[in-house]
Amino acid sequence: MIGFLLDDGWLELASTSISVEISNPLFSYDAIPGTTTYPFPVPMSPANLRLLSFPHVRAQQGEIPEPVAAHCYIDGLLWRVGVLIFEECDLENLSFEYKFVSDAGELQQLIKGRTLDSLDLGTVALELTPSHPDYALPSIRNTRFYGGANAYHLGTLNYFYAGAYATASDFNYYPIVPCPRLMPLLQKVLAAFGYTLEGTWFDDAELRQLILWSNRAAEDVAGPSAGLPATIPLAQLLPPISVGDFLIQLQKFFAVGFSFDPVRRRVSILSLRDVVADPEYIEREGGIPKLTPPTGGGFAFSMELEADDEMNKTLDTSWSSLVVGAGKSEMAASAGTLHQVREVDVIADNNGISREWLVPAVEVKGASPAFGIGEKTAFGLRFLFDRGMQEDSNGELYPLATSDETLWNGTPVGSYSLRWGGAAGLYNQFHKPWLDFLNAAGTEERTVRFRIADLLALDPARKDMLAGRKYLWQKVSLTVRTGGRLESARITYRPTRS
Predict the structure, then answer these.
(1) Among residues 255, 259, 242, 177, which one has the least CA distance to residue 381?
(2) Which sign, positive or negative, has the C-alpha torsion 316, 321, 323, 324?
(3) Neighbours of 200 (CB within 10 A)
(4) According to the model, what pLDDT value does residue 85 have?
(5) At 16, phi and psi to the nearest 5?
(6) Its pTM surpasses 0.90
(7) 393: which of 194, 305, 323, 435 lies 20 to 30 Å off by Cα?
(8) Mean of the pLDDT values across residues 217-226?
(9) Stretch 20-31: mean pLDDT, rounded?
(10) pLDDT the model gives residue 170
(11) Any idea which of 9-18, 100-109, 268-277, 314-323 has the lowest mean pLDDT?
């Protein structure tokens, strides 16, 4: 039995069956699939017309009927909170067609057309400290930041020496560019749409070091004469990409999945390597399977380099791609990281100080309200690790951000690299366990005994045991009658080895 409770009452349904499809969000790198129904009829009764605000009239007027918030009940128990989406109207039979979407499907409706830099994420105090909870201030080399409009720019953002950040003077100019920290940023982005962030992914201390490169200086239109502003809008520091693409690129880059609890409005980040390794399971009863073999073929990984970066022409870029096996399946991320250089600090050298250090480096025009270069610029989603205060060649501490796991002298500073290859790279550290599983796993479709308790307990990361073998479910298909109880489901499984 299925029903939909709207803000002002229950939707009246005809005697029918409604098909529901639940996609496991862990099985798609290119999207965040959720729960949806196939379109179903809704009678044009007086009560329904009132509850749905006469959607056919709005459509006839050239408007797009708004999604309608709804609670979906199955067998008398609340299962999902989501929205009803208007599909079409059959005036001859006095019926609408709607579909219900939840989980990521509902979030997709909320974030449609929204970009990171357009969100209201509040303001943050601008403080010259490397340990601010919302952003880092790592030294980054970018001589083209002002594009020649500021002759006093000496080539380094967030320049740090002798225990302090350098600030503007009459003859030298040191732009401050805060780089948002990923964990608090993700929390704020989801909160903007009514969700909270959960999961154990950020329990890893090294993953809490992740920051996003920003290409926007924190300054007023008057430039150095005005000093630093007291606060800065957080969204101003973010790349102009869609919220949906932000989440998908996180999946692609770090091999994670997003699990949605739409009733409690929570999002959990799940590490795919941990899902594969988890030995826990539940027993299920299933029928004879329909089998398809594994496809294999390997993977071809790539990440995006910053557009128009002059350093792409002179420095090695092989770290931005990797082919595993025959490279049949393409894993292309539009996220990436920055080049990294071990070099002489030119600013210190001009002052008679011999200093070598390791810094992220990029050669592109930035954004600022000063010097007429424009407050917005198209820059990409680029990750770095904030490695904290580290020593340069003279033993002086400075705020280091890296794409690698070592310091300027080769000393290890972490376990992870933001490059595809190598023992510390993205493939070996995050993707390999999951992709090894996919590469060797065919599919099995089974009809299994499935009641409302099973539906309410469905977990994308939990394995099922059938006939002595463990599986992860990829898709669950249900047919629920408006008058009748849930009894079975058709489940697409992928066999695991743990």
Answers:
(1) 242
(2) positive
(3) 11
(4) 94
(5) -160, 175
(6) yes
(7) 305
(8) 81
(9) 90
(10) 56
(11) 100-109
